[in-house]
Amino acid sequence: MATRFEPRRDEMRVIQAIIDSDPSLQERALRKRELLHSLLSEALHSRGLSEQQARLLAEAAVSALYIALDRWLKSEADVKMDQLAVDALAALRKDLDGIHTVQRPAAQRGRPSPYGGLTQVGLELRAHPEHPAY
After folding, report:
1. pTM to 2 decimals?
2. 119 SS3 class
3. Which of 33, 31, 32, 55 is nearest to 42 (CA)?
4. Could you tell me the domains of the chain?
5. Are 92 and 60 in contact (CB under 8 A)?
6. Residues 122 and 104: beta-carbon distance below 8 Å
7. Which of 1, 133, 4, 12 lies closest to 72 in space, CA to CA?
8. Per-residue pLDDT of the chain (134 residues; tens, 9 = 90+)
9. Which stretches does DSSP call E strand in 86-132?
């Protein structure tokens, strides 16, 4: 997909500026992003991934694509969009590796989680020191 975009960078910058200036076009772009996520999720699920795995992987892939596209459009450097997508996924992996489980405070143990069910372990997100957060 990225190779389709490479020769059209200047044209795509103009298109993105128009989208950014019009709320109805922003809404349309969001629907297209959601459709891409849905199609990718269904394709991954049909190839044997669980529904949860397919949805999470599709979301990560689509997010990486849009992060790469945004960075590529804003960059003046001769950088390839597909490399920016790979970099975004690598950064996500580092961020996920940087998540540490922490014990919930004693006063909260045994209470229902706001996300459903009972939990005794929470998650603590910490920025990875080797790369900026997205």
Report:
1. 0.67
2. coil
3. 55
4. 2-97 (1.10.357.10), 99-134 (no CATH)
5. yes
6. yes
7. 12
8. 557 777 889 999 999 999 999 999 999 999 999 999 999 999 999 999 999 999 999 999 999 889 999 999 999 888 888 899 899 989 888 888 877 665 556 556 566 555 554 444 444 444 445 544 43
9. 100-103, 121-124
List of residues 6+ apart from 41 with CB closer than 8 A:
51, 54, 55, 57, 58, 59
Token pair in block for residue 32: 């297209």
Q: Identify the bridge partners of residue 100 per DSSP, sorted by sequence position.
A: 124
Locate the DSSP E strands across the chain: 100-103, 121-124
